[in-house]
Structures are given as C-alpha cells and as structure tokens.
Design goal:
Elements lengths: L4 H25 L7 H23 L5 H18 L5 H7 L2 H7 L5 H22 L3
Length: 133
C-alpha cells in the first residue's frame, strides 16, 4: 500500500541515495573543469532545486507530490529573492563557501527558470524512486 510505513522507509532510503548523487553532481557544475556551456551556466541552479525538492520529499514523505513541488519551488524562489537583500550579516554568510552554496551570491532571473526545471526533475525522480519494484 502507498501509505504503509515500509514503503515510506524504502522511499526515504531511495530519496536519500538520490540526494547523495545530486549533491556531488551540483558541486561538479561549479568546479573548474570543462563542461558544456549550458550545464556550466544552468546545471548548478537546476540541481539545487532538485536537491531542495528531494530534501522536502525526504522530510514530508506522505505529502502529495504537487505540494512537495510547490513548497520546494517556493523555498528556492524565497532564497533567490533574498539575494536582493544585502544586510551585512547576510552578506557575511554569503561570503563563505557554504553560505554561497546554500544562499547564492546574486539575483538572476534565469535562476527562477532553472528552479522550475529542477523541481520538475526532482518530481520525476521522486515518482520513479517511489514506483514499486
């Protein structure tokens, strides 16, 4: 049954494994290695949204996928909009590598499109991971 604890446990394990794949892939897009321009430019932001989706799905495994997707997209948009604010303490956090990876460095309209694609990617991945074997 879809709501049984065993399925939820297995789904969480699969989602956790996907997170462990998405994080290094996202970091790889920011590494100083030659990548196709499209991936180098938009891959990290897209995978960021995929990661946010997977984290929400991990924390809220019984939620409908559309709610997980809307929450993930809302969180990504909120983080992007927060980049318009430049309080000294917030800029100090963004000056660190973890702060820059989580909160970003500067607002870009294109990031919003990447987030939509990343959430769709996360949804597709989530649905595939939850499909009974």
């Amino acid at each position: 049954m879809p709501g049984t604890p065993e399925l939820t446990r297995r789904a969480r394990l699969r989602i956790g494994a996907a997170i462990l794949v998405v994080i290094p892939l996202g970091l790889l897009t920011r590494a100083d290695i030659p990548l196709p321009a499209l991936i180098a430019t938009y891959g990290g932001d897209t995978l960021y949204a995929t990661l946010v989706y997977l984290l929400v799905a991990l924390l809220w495994p019984r939620a409908p996928r559309w709610r997980v997707g809307l929450l993930a997209l809302g969180l990504c948009i909120a983080v992007e909009l927060s980049q318009l604010a430049h309080a000294p303490w917030l800029d100090a956090i963004r000056a660190t590598l973890p702060g820059r990876l989580v909160l970003g460095a500067g607002f870009l309209w294109s990031d919003l499109a990447c987030y939509a694609v990343g959430v769709l990617l996360g949804t597709a991945l989530d649905l595939a991971l939850r499909r009974p074997r």
